[in-house]
Amino acid sequence: MNIDNDRKALLQALIERSFKYNEKPVFKLTSGKTSNYYINCKATTLNPSSMLLIGSLFYEKIRHLDVDAIGGLTHGADPIAFATAMVSAMPEGRGQKSEAGDQRSGLRSKPIQAFVIRKEAKSHGLMKVIEGNVSEGDKVVIVDDVVTTGGSTIQAIDRAREHKLEIVKVIALVDRQEGGRENIEKKMVIFESLFTRDELIDAYKNKP
User: Fold this and answer.
1) Which of 82, 92, 141, 169 has the most beta carbons within 10 angstroms of its beta carbon?
2) How many helices (H) does the chain have, and how many strands (E)?
3) What separation in angstroms does the CA of 170 have from each of 5, 31, 49, 53, 69?
4) DSSP symbols for 140-165
5) Spatial distance between the Cα atoms of 184 and 179, rounded to a whole number of angstroms
6) What mean pLDDT do residues 41-62 have?
7) Residues 6 or more apart whose Cβ sits within 8 Å of residue 134
8) What is the largest CA-CA distance in the chain?
9) Environment class of residue 167 by beta-carbon count within 10 Å: exposed (0-12), middle (13-18) or buried (19+)?
């Protein structure tokens, strides 16, 4: 796996499948505001070839951490969490080198579990808010596809903490740079993203 090549390929996929841009603010957002760009990451996160890239890149960000599970608020976080968990369980042993240059064979001896945080508890069965192989005290990473103001991510953080999960980090696929990072960091968690709005706009304007 080449991190730089995978990142470029995923950025290209986002531009082709998930990013719309217009010089005039013609896209209406859920907030009621209009914007000159629109991001729908699901067209990328649910694409099989992109899922492998996403899983590899997210896993690379957390593989050195002591993490038990990865998940977030359904539905945006689901394909990211599933892809990362899948990659964490894939055998290596090919002598691949990571970005840091170390031999990666055998580093995936502890697969990372995936979990889903529901927006509301089920009204039947066990009426769970969190589904998956995760238990009280587990160390987790919260993920999201797009962070705008951070509302859905913060909801996931709060739900995870209510269930006594220890949040190690929060990672978004795309940060729209509209205050989400600052709001999330107020929850006393580390936040990072694979891409920012500025990167997507720049890549769109400079595409061949």
Assistant:
1) 141
2) 7, 10
3) 23, 23, 24, 19, 12
4) EEEEEEEESSSHHHHHHHHHHHHTTP
5) 9
6) 97
7) 68, 69, 71, 113, 115, 140, 165
8) 52
9) middle
Name the pTM for this structure: 0.89
Instruction: Tell me, rounded to whole angstroms, the distance of Cα 54 from its chain centroid.
Output: 8
Pair of tokens at residue 201: 């706009």
Arithmetic mean of pLDDT over the chain: 90
Just give the CATH number of 48-195: 3.40.50.2020
Q: What is the pLDDT of residues 95-104, one digit of tens each?
A: 344 544 444 4
Under a CB-based contact definition with an 8 Å cutoff, are residues 196 and 177 in contact? yes
Q: Which of 23, 30, 78, 29 is nearest to 54 (CA)?
A: 78
Q: What is the DSSP letter of 111?
A: P
The ranges assigned to domains in the chain are: 48-195
User: What's the rounded Cα separation, in Å, for the pair 141 and 134?
Assistant: 12
In this structure, which amino acid lies at residue 3? I
